[in-house]
Write a structure and sequence with these properties.
The complex is a heterodimer of chains A (260) and B (377). By secondary structure, chain A is of the alpha/beta class. Chain A contains 10 helices and 10 strands. Chain B is built from 13 helices and 4 strands. The chains are: A alpha/beta (260), B alpha/beta (377). The interface between A and B is large, with 35 and 36 residues.
Chain lengths: 260, 377
């Protein structure tokens, strides 16, 4: 587990990423590397382009300039049908789950397996149930529809779907938002355990300082369209950069700042 | 590392020699299909200790770990003790994770699909429930409407106006075009027969009566069911899915007053108007065809029309319009409110809404015809 930039194999490399929406500039040259096997968090105020950056990493959005390389291959601006390898090796947990409303939970989790593998129906069903278990859900929820689940369960079901293909990189957009502290802590534990057992690389966007202290190996702070700081929470909490201080000095920041 | 190893690690294999099982290759998702088949058809010894040598396994992910776990579970269930050797550190932690977190393989057996009787029963019950819900909704709508009419100042007139525009004015072209064509078709089909008997002039009776009494209200209603009823369902359904209905409720706005009553009032006003319009355009179509094919001039046609269509027929046709309007608005809104759950439900209920409205319109129209002939009018 390396906290410094520059060592370890980079699985994601962003180079001088520029993004604009109309005249609003979101990123003006963001450069960062994510190493294999680390939990990498992206933080920043509202509108600092955290989620946008995540969407660019998973090639759902094309940056206006710069390059995004995943596993050493350029993905920015690639056609959808040439990105199947990326879809196969990454999993995304969307902020609101984005479960398919017309499918049951187990069908949601099976969907990527069905699309990308030729396994027998019975095995797909079993594997989907295993992923539900990994995400901390009981098999009883399998035949339920997403609208019958609570927010926390929906997040877990969405995580199970993101894990369906045993991805090497897991992207989490606000994994703990909308969860109560107990559930949030449970999800953190889960992410840690998955990382440790499966050697997952995790990239997450979050506001949750508790999560950051608990699981993040490195944290990137975005501000004014740039990367303003990068490091473990311990290092960041000592920095005096105004954007970083802003982030730590909210009420919640002070509370969580007492963490070890 | 895991997956690059998987790609280089070769196909996953399992071999049984005596009491020893040799596993090798990459036990990862992409190559599991064959392994799964092999495992399912394997002839395991009935008793005695089995030793699993996992030394040759180059990579393992949760899918592979599950297969391994499932195999061990079934063997142990069958009374065959198992010993595992040579499992790497990384693979062991994955296997442990899967074992801790996954349900017992026995639990995963699919709960057999329901039988014919059960499916039929459930379906039937669902329809009964829907019917009861609809009655309930009808009552609710009626109360909301009466409440609004008692205090007209509370009616959201801007929405009523908007509805009159979208359901009425915007439909003028399509209703006009189809009614005109319908008038042409009736005149033509009837004219062919009438000509044999030299009764050309009766084309006015034919077109006039059938348009005014039956086709104009029916045609208008069917077009509006497809155009407006579906839009009502989609609008309310989408609001239902995105919790906007709940949001309205939470700020103290009754969804009935905002979403249903203006639509109902709008359609009540618009449908009779559209029907009169369809009457006129339909008859115009008849006039054009009668002139071209039967040599009945417009003046003669309209002269005859005065005797052919009495006020009763006209009012009967016009009187159906508000009834159809009620059907379209209530069915459309009702199906919208039922579309909670997801985008797919919205599309399904939109379809149901159109089918049910058209069905009810035709049934009610038939009921009208039977009743009127019974009453002799």
């Amino acid at each position: 587990m390396q906290h410094e930039d520059g060592n370890g194999e980079a699985v994601i490399e962003l180079n001088e990423v520029h993004t604009r929406f109309g005249s609003r500039v979101v990123h003006q040259g963001v450069t960062m590397r994510v190493h294999r096997g680390e939990i990498f968090a992206i933080v920043g105020g509202s509108g600092s382009g955290k989620s946008t950056l995540l969407r660019e990493m998973v090639a759902l959005l094309k940056p206006n300039g710069g390059s995004v390389r995943i596993f050493g291959r350029e993905v920015a601006g690639e056609a959808e049908d040439r990105l199947l390898w990326l879809r196969r090796r990454t999993g995304v947990l969307f902020q609101n789950g984005a479960l398919f409303g017309g499918l049951t939970v187990i069908e949601n989790v099976s969907a990527p397996l069905r699309e990308h593998t030729r396994l027998a129906e019975a095995l797909i069903h079993e594997l989907a149930a295993v992923k539900l278990g990994l995400a901390g859900l009981d098999v009883e929820v399998a035949p339920m529809y997403p609208n019958e689940l609570s927010g926390g369960m929906r997040k877990r079901a969405a995580l199970a779907r993101a894990l369906a293909l045993d991805p090497e990189i897991l992207f989490l957009d606000e994994p703990t938002s909308g969860l109560d502290p107990v559930n949030a802590e449970g999800l953190d534990e889960l992410v840690l355990r998955l990382k440790n057992s499966l050697g997952l690389t995790v990239v997450m966007v979050t506001h949750d300082l508790d999560t950051l202290w608990r699981v993040a190996d490195r944290v990137a702070v975005l501000g004014d369209g740039r990367l303003v700081a990068l490091g473990h929470m311990r290092e960041l909490s000592l920095l005096s950069h105004p954007r970083v201080r802003e982030f730590f000095q909210g009420v919640r920041g002070r509370r969580s700042g007492l963490h070890p | 590392m895991k997956n690059s190893a998987a790609r280089e690690g070769g196909h996953p294999t399992i071999e049984l020699t005596g009491a020893e099982v040799h596993c090798s290759g990459a036990w990862t998702l992409s190559a599991l299909s064959r392994l799964d088949r092999q495992l399912r058809s394997m002839q395991w010894p009935k008793t005695g200790l089995l030793v699993f040598d996992m030394g040759g396994v180059t990579a393992m992910d949760t899918a592979g770990a599950w297969l391994f776990q499932r195999t061990l579970f079934h063997l142990e269930q069958g009374g065959c003790p198992v010993k595992v050797v040579g499992l790497g550190e990384e693979a062991r932690s994955i296997v442990d994770l899967v074992r801790d977190r996954s349900p017992a393989p026995g639990l995963l057996a699919e709960s057999g699909s329901p039988g014919f009787l059960e499916i039929t029963g459930r379906r039937a019950w669902r329809h009964v429930e829907e019917g009861l819900d609809f009655l309930f909704f009808l009552g609710e709508t009626a109360t909301a409407l009466l409440r609004s009419l008692a205090r007209p100042a509370r009616i959201r007139w801007q929405f009523v106006g908007f509805n009159i525009q979208t359901a009425g004015f915007d439909a003028l072209v399509i209703v006009g075009l189809l009614s005109f064509l319908l008038g042409v078709v009736i005149a033509y089909q009837g004219g062919v027969q009438l000509r044999y008997y030299g009764a050309n002039i009766f084309v006015a009776d034919l077109v006039g009566l059938s348009m005014v009494r039956e086709f104009a209200p029916l045609m208008t209603a069917i077009i509006l069911a497809g155009r407006t009823g579906s839009a009502y369902t989609a609008e309310i359904g989408t609001m239902q899915v995105t919790e906007e209905i709940d949001a309205l409720r939470s700020i103290g706005v009754a969804p009935m007053d905002l979403l249903v009553v203006p639509k109902l009032l709008g359609l009540f006003l618009v449908m009779p108007l559209l029907t009169v319009y369809a009457d006129m355009v339909g008859i115009a179509g008849g006039v054009v065809m009668a002139g071209a094919m039967l040599g009945v001039s417009a003046i003669t046609f309209l002269d005859r029309l005065e005797y052919a269509v009495d006020l009763t027929s006209y009012l009967i046709g016009l009187g159906k319009a508000p009834v159809f309007a009620g059907i379209i608005a209530t069915v459309g809104c009702f199906q919208g409110f039922r579309a909670y759950g997801g985008a797919e439900r919205v599309s399904r209920h939109t379809t149901i809404s159109v089918v049910q409205s058209v069905f009810l319109i035709i049934v009610v129209d038939a009921a009208f015809s039977v009743t009127f002939s019974w009453l002799g009018i």
